Amino acid sequence: MAITLDMLTEAIRKKVGEDCGIRGRVRFDLDDGCVYVDATQVPNIVNNDPTLPTDCTIKMSNENLHRIMLQEVNALQSFLTGHIKIQGNMQLAMAITKII
Questions:
Q1: Is residue 43 reached through a cis peptide bond, with omega within 30 degrees of 0 on the bond before it?
Q2: Average pLDDT of adjacent 10-residue blocks, the chain of 100 residues
Q3: Which of 41, 46, 49, 85 fits a 20 to 30 Å CA distance from 62?
Q4: Three-state secondary structure call for residue 87
Q5: CA nearest neighbour of 12 among 47, 59, 56
């Protein structure tokens, strides 16, 4: 079964919850769209709008994000091997990957 953008968005929405505490805006650029997390306000916002401002953009495949969320692969190892590309605030990227 293919991992869809809708599935990933809903899973991230559940994990982020009302207040994940990272105090930043992160966009996951994926195969078929993006998942945007705005944790600068409570309740946190999770949607698929690619036009909103971010503090950090994380580029990866749907499958890689899914595997990170299932803890099948380590986010840091994925970054070091080039499966994840990060633009912007690295600390924020590390914080969000601990939550998801």
A1: yes
A2: 93 96 97 97 97 98 96 94 97 93
A3: 41
A4: strand
A5: 47
Q: Which CATH number fits domain 5-99: 1.10.579.10, 3.90.79.10, 3.30.1050.10, 3.40.1000.20?
A: 3.30.1050.10
Whole-number Å distance between alpha carbons of 98 and 55? 17
Give the pLDDT confidence score for residue 11 in this predicted structure: 97
pLDDT given for residue 83 in this prediction: 96
d(CA 20, CA 50): 21
Q: Count of residues for the chain?
A: 100
What is the reported pLDDT for 56? 98
Question: Strands 85-88, 45-47: parallel, antiparallel or unpaired by DSSP?
Answer: unpaired
**In the chain, where are the structural domains located?**
5-99
Distances, alpha carbon 61 to alpha carbons 26, 40, 56, 84, in Å: 16, 25, 16, 8
